[in-house]
Amino acid sequence: MSNASHPIRASFHSVEADGVKVFYREAGPRDAPVMLLLHGFPSSSHMFRELIPLLATQYRVIAPDLPGFGFTEVPAERHYAYTFDSLALTMEAFVDALALEKYALYVFDYGAPTGLRLAAAHPERVTALVSQNGNAYLEGLGDAWAPLKRYWADPSPENRETIRGFLTLDATKWQYVHGVANPDSVAPEAYHLDVALMQRPGNQEIQLDLFLDYANNLEQYPRFQQFFRTAQVPTLVIWGRHDPFFIPPGAEAFRRDNPNAVVQLLDTGHFALETHVDVIAAEIHKLLARATR
């Protein structure tokens, strides 16, 4: 029987890595080439729910929840420091726990500074790169960063409280529907789930800590760009062009360091998978066919 009548379903797992119980979704043949999917704020591996079955026909697809997000559990006694350096170390431990020696990397939003730290540390592991609104260039930061930049410059209690506004249902829904031609095409459970998980005790403070630490990612951009230049892995940069956070110049900039990067701008917003999952999956299949040749 064809996959049309029996779609591939993800299975759900947790593994101990770096003192953290990392939740992840997995689908596809265990002996197939691996694709590692790293989500962003304020989502989780749930954002890949429709993409995973489309890729798992030919690849082993693995999507973890970062610490502080989704269903990953961080014990209080772990005294976890919520920084992007920490997220990357936990993801490196996760990759090691699953014994993933090589993988194609899909990065989105927070997944970009997390995954690109992995790539820069272990370039030999990365077979291909997909950046979906995953920034690595200063010119990619849109005007929506203005309040966050004020918080970086002056992390006062007042500025921290202002940033708390990013954690509301209205702000989260706006991230999903802004720039989308038909906002009703975005599944409402996506942003409602994100907000429900952010309401857990202590989670808002975690998010505010990560907002503050994001400034340190900008200092890592030259290191990420060095990886692009030296590794020259097959690269797909596929962005929603109406993303208010990561704007098209950031997508175009990838070509500066990897002239062979395929750059495609879609008529949608930040969460491009919500509206263009079929297009993105098709482009990834083309990329990985090149990468595995």
**What separation lies between the terminal Cα atoms?**
28 Å
**What portion of residues is helical?**
40-55%
Largest sheet: 8 strands, mixed
Topology-level CATH name: Rossmann fold
CATH superfamily: Alpha/Beta hydrolase fold, catalytic domain
CATH class label = Alpha Beta
Shape verdict = globular
CATH architecture: 3-Layer(aba) Sandwich
Count of domain modules: 1
Quick synopsis:
The chain is of the alpha/beta class and 293 residues long.
Molecular structure report:
- It is a single chain.
- 41% of the residues lie in helices and 16% in strands.
- It is α/β, with parallel strands linked by helices and 293 residues long.
- The protein has one domain: Alpha/Beta hydrolase fold, catalytic domain (Rossmann fold).
- Strand 3 (34-38), helix 1 (51-55) and strand 4 (60-64) form a beta-alpha-beta unit.
- The longest helix is centred in the last third of the chain and has 19 residues, at 273-291.
- It is globular, with a radius of gyration of 18 Å.
